[in-house]
Amino acid sequence: MRTAYSVETVRAAERELMARLPEGALMQRAAAGLAAVCTRLLTRRRGRVYGARVVLLAGPGDNGGDALYAGARLARRGAGVTAVPMDPQRLHPGGLAALLAAGGRLAQEVPRRADLVVDGLLGIGGRGGLRPAAAALAGQIPPGVPVVAVDLPSGVDADTGEVAGPAVRADVTVTFGAYKPGLLVDPGASLAGAVHLVDIGLELPPAQTQALQHADVAALLPAPTATSDKYRRGVVGILAGSRQYPGAAVLAVAGALRGGAGAVRYVGPAAEAVLARYPETLIGPGRVQAWVAGPGLGEGRAGEVADLLAQDVPVLVDADGLRGLDPELLRTRSAPTLLTPHAGEAAALLEVPRESVEAGRLSAAAALARRYGATVLLKGSTTLIASGGGPVRVNPTGTAWLATAGSGDVLSGLAGSLLAAGLSGPDAGAVAAYLHGLAARHAAGSAPGTPILAHEVAEALPKAWHEVHSR
Ligand SMILES: NC(=O)C1=CN([C@@H]2O[C@H](COP(=O)(O)OP(=O)(O)OC[C@H]3O[C@@H](n4cnc5c(N)ncnc54)[C@H](OP(=O)(O)O)[C@@H]3O)[C@@H](O)[C@H]2O)[C@@H](O)CC1
Ligand SMILES: [K+]
């Protein structure tokens, strides 16, 4: 499990640790870790550090200090290190002295030829969009040169992943003490590249943001035992599809059949299409351990969704089912509710513009969870799973190609199946998003980065399932 912590928590842990250590010790740990990653990168690319041209973008705070001290270490190994300050009057004095003593130099402009750029403009002290001097330096990074960000890419909000205006795009981010949420959540996550965590000895409380990994998912997946039958493994009911959108029903059933429940029951006007594709589906009302309500329902079906919400079983509400949901009604439910909106649906549920959800995904997901008393899976390039009180889960396996028609229907069937198999709302949501993302990668097969179809994602779920168990 990867865990991430807010700036406030990281700062508190740093204060506590700094009080017990000699002055500057933490920054030296950070700089040593940063220099080690730069050394590995340079060695991989050019065989050695000696003679490499390294450019440091140095901000006015301790983030710049980390870069300057790391630059001094590289200069001592024979690299030609040039620091370009954001503000020449405000540079970390100790870091500057160390760099100059090691043979580094200062420049006013970013040199056009470089083997590596180190972004030490801003770290967790950055606020709002990059000011003009910082934006100008970020804009001068020569194309094609690898960029290592110090702690986080400058311009990314550490707590939320939000980016207001220009920001640095890093190939590698070396972060200190703990992941920050902005490294796991888009748009920040996609600017961070590969993230290396340097342990500087912080002692941290339970996590506020989590990202599952293979082993976490494997431990949560349902596994039939010798005594389980289809009813004990759970039956998931699917209320989906309409004459206009029969495909949504087929895709939700496809996701559900591969999600670990013992059986899938379909209710709605697309039974013929469902049976034609999946003859193993049970048709018509009956007992279930969880419901999925909403994919492809079309207009005027709110009453059917409300009837399911009145039952004392877990209910996942998606797509058309999300229209006009009553927060009061949801909050009084005793069984779990899982809502799976995309940004537009989340905006409607929160009665805010879509842009404000896109720009502040973490806070939107948490606000929805509070307002509706539900677990909320906010779909997007980094899907988030928020529930009242617990940590927010960030899905690390997503791919932009999942933004394709019907892919959400597969996801809701899959998550509903996991609910029926007994997983909690947050676990079902997080495991479903994880498998769904992995399956999309498998669906692309030998042509990664190419378009995929929703039914291919459903068909690739067994491979995703197998992959998490086999590592
Ligand atoms: N604490 C520790 O123990 C350790 C900390 N470590 C390192 O310290 C980093 C945090 O350092 P930090 O607190 O000095 O803040 P930092 O990110 O350098 O930026 C502050 C400066 O930026 C400026 N500024 C702000 N916003 C701006 C904007 N939008 N555009 C332009 N400028 C902006 C702001 O200006 P001001 O608002 O004061 O005018 C201020 O001068 C942390 O990320 C990690 O790398 C490690 O060494 C491990 C040990
Ligand atoms: K930085």
From TrEMBL:
Family annotation (CDD domains): YXKO-related
Binding sites annotated in the UniProt record for K(+): N63, D119, S154
Catalytic activity, EC: 4.2.1.136, 5.1.99.6
Annotated positions binding AMP: K379, G380, S381, T382, T383, G408
A single GO molecular function term of this UniProt record: ATP binding
Ranges for domain YjeF N-terminal: 10-208
Single Gene Ontology BP annotation: nicotinamide nucleotide metabolic process
Keyword terms: ATP-binding, Isomerase, Lyase, Metal-binding, Multifunctional enzyme, NAD, NADP, Nucleotide-binding, Potassium
InterPro entries in UniProt: CARKD, Nnr, Ribokinase-like, YjeF_N_dom, YjeF_N_dom_sf
Free-text remark on how the cofactor is bound: Binds 1 potassium ion per subunit.
Catalysed reactions, as listed in the record: (6S)-NADPHX + ADP = AMP + phosphate + NADPH + H(+); (6S)-NADHX + ADP = AMP + phosphate + NADH + H(+); (6R)-NADPHX = (6S)-NADPHX; (6R)-NADHX = (6S)-NADHX
Cofactor names: K(+); Mg(2+)
PROSITE patterns xref list: YJEF_C_3 (PS51383), YJEF_N (PS51385)
Residue span, YjeF C-terminal domain: 213-468
Keyword Lyase: yes
Residues that bind (6S)-NADPHX: 62-66, 123-129, 151, 248, 296, 342, 409
Binding partners and assembly: Homotetramer.
HAMAP family from the UniProt entry: NADHX_dehydratase (MF_01965), NADHX_epimerase (MF_01966)
Family classification: In the N-terminal section; belongs to the NnrE/AIBP family. In the C-terminal section; belongs to the NnrD/CARKD family.
The protein's role, per its UniProt record: Bifunctional enzyme that catalyzes the epimerization of the S- and R-forms of NAD(P)HX and the dehydration of the S-form of NAD(P)HX at the expense of ADP, which is converted to AMP. This allows the repair of both epimers of NAD(P)HX, a damaged form of NAD(P)H that is a result of enzymatic or heat-dependent hydration.
Protein name, per record: Bifunctional NAD(P)H-hydrate repair enzyme
Biological source species: Streptomyces xanthophaeus
Lineage, opening ranks: Bacteria, Bacillati, Actinomycetota, Actinomycetes, Kitasatosporales
Name of encoding gene: nnrD
